[in-house]
Amino acid sequence: MKIAIDITYSPSGGSLTQIEKMVEKFNQIDELEIIIYSKLSNLSIIGRIIWGQFFLPLYLIREKVDVLFCPGNFGPLFCSVKTIIWIGTIGPFFEEFIRNFLWVSKGQNRIKLYINKLFMILSSLRANAVIFESQFTKELFINKYNIRENKTYVINIGFDEYFAENKKMRSNIFDSKLQN
Asked: Would the pTM of this model clear 0.85, i.e. be above it?
């Protein structure tokens, strides 16, 4: 099976770590081939949309990809392969988010945010599966944008064995202090 991952949105921070961990796990599966499409020069949101809507689907056909994974909130609206969208932010859906961030206050950035929101909704409607980072986000898309529930999944991120062990250790320390 061939999986393509579209990371043309230049993930950073926790998002990049999550994708690195996924690719690490995918690489452990022998019958899985991974193709990664990464950032092409300095694509703006508009450039990324043009590339993702027109060129990416052609590359997927040429490379005979079975599944496209789009962790950057949206993917192609018309695609010949199964598509999984990962919604990692709901900022564009809340006016408070838009008002509180200075970089968004400029008109041009506000327009980009609304375009991003539109493509998130449309991609979610067209995708074969949609992954959300919280139940709240999943319910927002199901109730407000009519995304079919049977194709939605929640993956609560942020859990790592390292932190689980440290939490257990901290818990034991607190328990022993409380008993004294």
From this structure: no
